[in-house]
Amino acid sequence: MALLEKIDSPTDLKKLSIDELPLLCDELRAFIIGELSTNPGHLGSSLGAVELSVALHYVYDTPDDKLVWDVGHQAYVHKILTGRRDVFHTNRKTGGISGFPRRSESPYDAFGGGHSSVSISAALGMDVASQLKGEKRKCVVVIGDGAMTGGLAFEGINNAGVEAGDLLVILNDNDMSIDPNVGALNRYLLSITTSRRYNRFKNKTQNILRAFPFLFKVIDRSVAGVKRFLLQRSNFFESLGFRYFGPIDGHDVKKLVKVLQDLKQIEGPKLLHALTVKGKGYAPAEQSQTTWHAPGVFDPDTGRRKRVKANSRKFQDVFGETLLELARLNPSIVGVTPAMPTGCSMNIMQAEMPDRVFDVGIAEGHAVTFSGGLAAQGMLPFCNIYSSFMQRAYDNVIHDIVLQGVNVVLCLDRAGLVGEDGATHHGSFDIAFFRAIPDITIASPFDEHELRNLMYSAQAKPCGAYVIRYPRGEGYRGEEWRNEFEMIERGKSRTLHSGNQAAMLSFGPIGNEAADAIDELVEEGYSIEHVDLRFAKPLDTDMLNDIWSRFDKIMTLENGVINGGVGSAILEHFSTLEQNRPHRVVRLGLPDKFVQHGPVDELATICGIDKNGIKRELKKLISD
């Protein structure tokens, strides 16, 4: 690390000669591989953007020039070069640096990351602000070809072609997001990439421009027509007002520097098409790009990954296996996912029934509305979207599912605390924002058996929009995760443990923490009734009325924000009942602030929803 150890800022980077940059890139790759082998993070995307990161900070004057990373999976080198090398070992840990760009962390993080396709719109806003303030500033976006499939990216680039003063969009084209990219745009980029005639013409044009600058305007006017002739179509980006450059080898750092230096002199909206390899420089990551997007702990020498226990089963895998079982029984069932068939385990059904699974690209709103259209013609979509990403499709759920009166099962993976990805990925808000919608069902399983039963019930007796939320990670049943399907009546709870001192009303898998806490309290002589709500909407009002009549001390528990969540719903119901004696209701859940990154168990302790926190609050409730 002879070069890397000298770099604490881009100013230090600029002291290197251009011939030293390839060696620095090698050192950065070795550093990232070594760090992430013991402290897991997003490996493949960061390895694929090493040269881009080095060249950008070498050429541009950050942080005055604004550099915006779409999503931010690929920004580890950016962080290392901008003063965070010595704290990089804290990446994604509680109290450490974030795994994504974050404005509060560094002035070099021009805009926060975590969700896809936002970069062009954000950078355009910065560019226009600079124009309004009379500032001369460069704004640069790095966006992957997967993120370019998101609708917001198209909205941004359409507006930028008119409004941008000095905006460069770098299309980091590795033909991968997490799973392989899909759609017409991906095929179009491939056609540009493989057009030898176009690339030969482009190189000749660039040479002419260097030798005869006065020909620039003539070439500029004619090049669009020539491109249409060579490619037999118009250039998509230039039709939107962008000057298109490329494709270029995104791993030739010296060539990248020279091209960026040239582009820095050209104002207006520009797009540089860079071809990269996800996982570049580390054979296991190059050979299995989906697996090595975020591989967990691994041996950097052998590439051997740490395996989970043989008898463990993730909730997502139970979903995937169950969906295939149900699809075999019900020919109307189809699967829909926005670019996450592996992440949500819909690839299990996809392998057997490829014609009935639809990966629509990174386009959550489209996934929901597409599902609505399928349902309008008699199909029964299971649309699986991570809870935090479902925030992006809220209007689509209201307008295109609920108001249409169609039957769609909305499966929300990664509900509640998700851990090291932090505030942008926690599934904190879905209970609260869905609860406001009329004619919607919101359910959450206590364990894997309940997940299977809820999925079975949702398709056996369709009732409009049916939300099933479940967490990231392993379940509780081990090898006994598979059960015979049982029908669960919509809006009906179940009692797990009887008692007489206090009542615990839990929603979803977080109820297992409550069950463990109650077991320990029973051994200490306490008597607590435990109800698994199953549904946040509709609530089991008969059960709630009974609890109100028998208990003065009641606690609610959920893995979501308490403001507007299921605890709030229960309080709202209790307010309609006769207040014939004093009651105390305590709500446990996520606080009214953004929970940062860290291991789930540590975050649960901080939020007071782990076993010990629940036990402590129950004791306090009973003793007061």
Q: In terms of topology, how is this protein built?
A:
Elements: H1 10-13, H2 21-38, H3 43-48, H4 50-59, E1 66-69, H5 76-84, H6 119-133, E2 139-144, H7 151-163, E3 166-173, H8 184-193, H9 196-211, H10 216-231, H11 236-239, E4 243-249, H12 253-263, E5 268-275, H13 283-287, H14 315-329, E6 333-337, H15 347-352, E7 357-359, H16 364-376, E8 380-386, H17 387-390, H18 394-402, E9 408-413, H19 430-435, E10 440-443, H20 448-460, E11 465-469, E12 494-497, E13 502-507, H21 511-523, E14 528-532, E15 535-537, H22 541-550, E16 553-561, H23 566-574, E17 584-590, H24 600-607, H25 611-623
Structure description:
The protein is α/β, with parallel strands linked by helices. Helix content is 41%, strand content 16%. The strands form three sheets. It has a seven-stranded mixed sheet with strand order 7-6-8-9-11-10-15, with helices on both faces. It is globular, with a radius of gyration of 27 Å. The N and C termini lie far apart (60 Å).
